Structures are given as structure tokens and as C-alpha cells.
Amino acid sequence: MIVERMPQDGQWLFRHRGVLPFVLLIPGFWAFSRFEFLGGSRTAQQIWDWCCLCVSISGLLVRATTVGFVDSGTSGRNTTSQRATELNTTGWYSVVRNPLYLGNYLVMLGIIMVPADIALIAITGLLFWIYYERIISAEEAFLHAKFGQVYADWARATPVFFPRLNGWRSPARTFRWKMVLRREYTAVLLIGIAFLALNLLEHIFAEQQLRVDTPWIVAFLVSLCIYATLLTLKRFTKLLTVC
Predict the structure, then answer these.
(1) Cys bridge to 56: 80, 110, 130, 224, which one at CB 3.0-4.6 A?
(2) Radius of gyration (C-alpha) of the chain in whole angstroms
């Protein structure tokens, strides 16, 4: 039955959930094949690009303010199996059941908004929903089996993806910067790479020029420095160790 098949598919997708960005390259290149500067103005496109970056950064902030308040054994990047040492119901989890996926969507949305192509936004939104609906199905089956009625009551009162506007409960834990720095540095680099590549594609398809604007080179180098620094600290020191 479909209701049984979805969690099974979700388990497979959970283990391979890093594949989605590569799948989105197909509609992305299709959109750029007909790309023109927004309103025919390079200045308007530049302003739009920075607005798109802000959307992606907002997704990064949602992720950061989620993982910074949770236990080390939850809300992780593990891909081999589901795990949860406790049920998170405060902070972002008091208004939405999947804040990390909401953050992922905002990061992706900022990136795919750059060509200002409604069809691209609709297609990628649909692919995102199909993809994560199955992962969420698998996660919810796991959490319901582990936490029982407590999970069922919380899930019944909390939206799956779109946050409700009331009912916020302050996080039960104090914010831990080390947790954020340990886990979100890769996303910073990916955003830097994505917007650098998008700017290159803009010039290729709109102007037939192979170049990148200086601000995006600087933004990429900053993201690269952040990534390299935090990766080094994580692997070779104990400065980012979370107690």
C-alpha cells in the first residue's frame, strides 16, 4: 500500500538526501537557457540577486536557531539511520514540526529565485515537496514508534512545514554557538558557491561573457574562509567540542 511504501521510500531518500541539489540542476540549466536580466536591466538583476541571497541567509538562520537549541542527539546530519534521544517541542519545534527542512527550503528558494523564472520556482517546489514528504513520513513513523502518544499529541497540534503564527514556546535549552559552528559551516560554503556560479551563468547567458562580479567573488572567498577555518577547528582542535 502507498501508506506503507512512503516510509520505505523515505528511508532510502533519508540516506541519500544530499542528492536533491544535483537533481535541481536539470530545471536550473533549463531556466538559464532562456535567461535575461530582470526587466532588461543589469542593475535591477544585481539588486534582485542580493534579495535572493537574503532569502537563502534567512534559511541558514532558521537552521542555526534550530540546531543551536537542541540536544546533540537530535536534528542531525546523520544519513545512515534515524535517531532521536529526545522529542524537541520548544523553540522552532513549537510552531513547526520540521524547521530544518523549512530552513533548507528557504536556502534553496533564494538560489532558484535568481533567474526570476516562475516555472522554475514551481517545478523545484514540487520536487522539494515530493522528496521531503517521503523523508518526513519515514521520520514521523520512527518518532511515533519511539515516543508514542506524546509525539502524536504534539504532531496533531503542530504544522508539518508552514509555521503557525502563535504558540511559540521559548527553547528549553540555552543557545550553543559551538553546535551551530560545528554543523552549519558547509551550508555557508554551498551558498557562497551557488551565488558565485549563478552570477557567472547570468553573464554567460545574458551577455555572452565569461566573468563574475567582484562582490560575488568576495562573498565566495569569505564563505570559503569560514568553511576552512571551522573545518580545521573541528577536526584538529577541541575548541568546537560541545559538552
Answers:
(1) 110
(2) 19
- First vs last Cα of the chain: how many Å apart? 44
Q: For residue range 130-184, list pLDDT tens digits in order.
A: 888 888 888 888 888 889 999 999 999 999 999 998 989 999 889 999 999 999 9
Is residue 109 within 8 Å of 121, Cβ to Cβ?
A: yes
Q: Look at the alpha carbons of 120, 126, 132, 134 in this order and tell me if their dihedral is positive or negative.
A: negative
pLDDT above 90 coverage of the chain, percent = 63
The counts of H helices and E strands in the chain are: 10, 0
| Angstrom distance (rounded) from CA 133 to CA 81 | 17
102 burial (CB, 10 Å; 0-12 / 13-18 / 19+) is buried
Tally of CA atoms within 13 A in the half-sphere of 37 that contains its CB: 15
Confidence of residue 115 (pLDDT cuts 50, 70, 90): very high
Dihedral sign, Cα of residue 69, residue 165, residue 123, residue 47 = negative
Nearest CA to 90 out of 109, 71, 113 is that of 71
Report field, pTM of the whole predicted structure over 0.85: yes
